[in-house]
Amino acid sequence: MHEPAGLRARKKQRTHGAIADAAISLFLERGFDRVSVNDIAAAAEISKPTLFRYFPTKEDLVLHRFTDHQGEAAHVVRDRDSGVEPVAALHRHFRAGLDRHDPVTGLNDHPEVVAFHRLVFSTPSLAGRLARYRLEDEEALAGALGEGIQARLGAAQVLAALRVLARANWQKIADGRSARDVHPEAAADADYAFDRLR
Question: Do 59 and 126 touch, CB atoms closer than 8 A?
């Protein structure tokens, strides 16, 4: 008897989520470097080979949360309405993220989100792996913007601005301020940055 494909996919997604949740919980409790892959497999009640089928590296157990946003800037540019400039579409998208307190904007004060960002920013191997994701995003955005050095420079500038804005927002939250309190400054900073990008 075979499982329907939809059921198999849902089971795989649940297993993926359970492994990731167990890993993040351990990393936040003990620190990334103090948790072994064996610890994670035991906490998730799976074998080590099963863990590696879902997550090829230990870093992927953390950074998979960023893959939800992989290529997002390129999608925003490609899917923008006719007559809307790419930078205007990206500005609108980032401002909407601020309004939603999307963690990717840095403007989210949920304790687990703040701790997660602290984990990523303070662990060299995670920060290095995140830089690779950013290079892939830069290539995708450059492709959406056009060809040549102008598109590549534009993509690099936009993504650098987004990174700086998000990190500044997160730092204010990490220093003890609420997302609601920081929001007006974050919006003004975004407006300033995108005005300069234009």
Answer: yes
Q: What angle do CA 130, 132, 138 make, to 5 degrees?
A: 105
Give the CB-side neighbour count of residue 103, counting CA atoms within 13 A. 14
Query: Three-state secondary structure along 29-91?
Result: HHCHHHCCHHHHHHHHCCCHHHHHHHCCCCCHHHHHHHHCCCCHHHHHHHCCCCCCCHHHHHH
Cβ atoms of 49 and 39 closer than 8 Å: no
* Most distant CA atoms of the chain, gap in Å: 61
Helix (H, G, I), strand (E, B) or coil at 101: coil
Please state the pTM of the whole predicted model: 0.81
Name, in order, each residue with C-beta under 8 angstroms of 66's C-beta and a sequence gap of 6 or more.
104, 130, 133
CB 113 within 8 A of CB 47: no
7-40 pLDDT, tens digit per residue, is 888 888 888 888 989 999 999 999 999 999 999 9
Q: How many secondary structure helices (H) and strands (E) does the chain include?
A: 10, 0
